[in-house]
Amino acid sequence: MRRCFVFATLALLCMPVVNAAIVTNTNQSVYFYRLPAHNASTDVDAVYYNPAGVMKLKNGFHLAVHNQTLFQDRIINSTLKSLNNTEFQGKTKVPVYPNAYAIYKTDGFALSFGFGPNAGGGSAEYEKGLPSFETPISMLPLMISAAGLPTSRYSAQISFEGESIFYGFQANASFALSDAVAVAGGVRYIYAVNKYEGSLTNILVNSYHPLLNPTQQMIPAKTLVGAQAADKSVDVKQVGSGITPIVGLSLTPAQNLKIGVRYEFNTKIELENETAKDDLGAYPDGRKERSDIPPVFAVGAEYGLSPNVRASVSYTLFLEKQANWEGREETLDGNSYDLALGLEFDLTKAVTLSGGYIYSRSGAREKYQLDTSYDLDSDTYGAGLRIRLGSSVDLDLGGIYVKYKDQVKKMAVPFYGAYEEKYKQKTTGFGIGLNFHL
Asked: Is 150 within the bounds of a domain?
């Protein structure tokens, strides 16, 4: 029985993001869960979403500690007739996805700091492997039969285990130019680590051979085809880092209207292999490859419909075609973007309810998609509440559901001809956060 484990390899694989971006994780607080239209935030998480907007906070210290728990199902259906399986399902679980923020604010100036996984951070388990893992093995029966040894079945043990996380450490300085205008500048240091450990072993076929296998039982394929079917393994670590410059603008043209603008420059990240074993030849020791986090342009507005009701809208553009992914970015049809709407209502002085929706469209289309790394259009629904535990402590609770749009890729292999792969996905999550105002 085949068994494959894949734990969020690279920033482009199995990411727990809830937006259109192929790389960037924008779910950087529980407040974002309950109000996804968040680019005009003036709360503690504005450190990430609207760094100039922290100037709307009261003078003093502000702290936030949040955690999210995410679950993601990824399903690939293949019509390739040589495969033993037609459906490959992966389950991603992220029990701990932390974010932390700290702000010190005076009348005209603020320093702020933030931490969170800006890319990667998930885990997935594929009990039946992936089509790309199994396809070369599935060709063995036809190849061996063509050599004169009738073969109709195969089996193998496939395992792949990995970890991927791009930690982000951010620092900003914000300035109030007037009551209506504030600006901010900052940097985010990214530390990226990927780990891979996997094996391909025990490849068996039921080839008929009058001497070696007259009863046509399952036997090691390497006795017939040699090194092509030999056991293989990989053990490699990739490490890299980069700097993201960030600028922001906060506008308050009217008492009940807030506008936030943020631009993040391209983050150049070069990952270097530290390879202990690589029988596949995929990770030469010391080789470097680019895995950038692309530029982000974000703008949002919040409008007070009444003293107790606020509506918000956000637009986020991920300039992925400006990143360097070793040429993979050239397969994109365009850049990804999010359009979000939200509504927040103060039920009482102690309880605020909120909810919202994100319309996400990815720049990835058929040419980009792979079973190990695909990105789909989606619709996201989030809701939650804030409970004021006292004059200086808030509790945020939120949940989110992401429904993705299936995509089909047409493919072909020698002898078997054309076939299709269909990519599916769904994500759910919930979170809890504490905010302190001192």
From this structure: no
Alpha carbon distances (Å) from 395 to 55, 235, 283, 385:
22, 43, 45, 8
**DSSP label at 183?**
E
The parent domain of residue 94 ranges over 4-144+156-200+237-437
Separation of alpha carbons 115 and 369, rounded Å: 31
pLDDT, tens digit, for every residue of 51-88? 999 999 999 999 999 999 999 888 999 999 999 989 98
- What pTM value is reported for the model? 0.91
Domain containing residue 374: CATH number = 2.40.160.60
Tokens 């991920």 sit on residue: 318
* Token pair 């051979």: residue: 209
3-state secondary structure of 136: helix
- 255 within a domain of the structure (yes/no): yes
Write the single-letter amino acid at 7.
F
Q: Is 340 a domain residue?
A: yes
Separation of CA 401 from chain center: 15
pLDDT digit string, tens, across residues 97-128: 999 999 999 999 999 999 999 987 666 677 77
Q: Determine, yes or no, domain membership for 106.
A: yes
